[in-house]
Amino acid sequence: MFRNPIGKSIFFVCAMTAVFIMTGCSATTRDISPDEAIHYDEGYDFTDKHAIVSSLVESLLNKPPLVTRYDRPVIIVYNVANRTSEHIETDGITDDIRQQILQSGKARFVNKVQRDNIEKETSYQYGGNVAAETRLQRARQVGAEYLISGTLRSIKKKQPKQFRLTKKTLQYYSLTLELTDLQTGLIEWTDNVEIVRESSKPFIGW
Known about the structure:
By secondary structure, the protein is an alpha/beta fold. The protein has a domain at 45-114 and 142-202: 3-Layer(aba) Sandwich (Rossmann fold). It is 32% helix and 28% strand. Strands 2-1-3-4-5 form a 5-stranded mixed sheet, with helices on one face. Helix 2 crosses helix 3 (91-104). It is elongated. The two termini are 46 Å apart.
């Protein structure tokens, strides 16, 4: 009986290719620590957010005016302005800053995000459905003494076009925060964090 070795070889190659494709397409997952530094490219990511927030909060808590205050001054946080060309949710930065300062016990915060809901609840309580003795008192909210604001900027540079096997990109991020005294309008503290990252990618690849 005639056997075709070429046919068997083609069948074997096809079978192995199918196995490789099926194996390569399977998804794998793993848990990682939020403190672990992981970068898939040169862009801004959660690792950068953690490093930026930790550095700036440490600076704010250990320099005047907060380092000399023991009465937990009231602060309000306004959004960090995004001056990059990327869609970056800066609310995550301000949320983490507020959380870490609160946990330090050095300050308190006005809940700016919930102001409309506070007003709605106040109006409801004075609408006749809530007993007078249990209603909250008007004009008892605490005013902020300081305001935190900031700006996130970025610069991206690529190598000029010329013959090479890889292309390199240099990404720069800078976040500047300010603490303003609302009574005087003076900036009482400011600091910034810079991140510079270079990536190298082959011209041909996945």
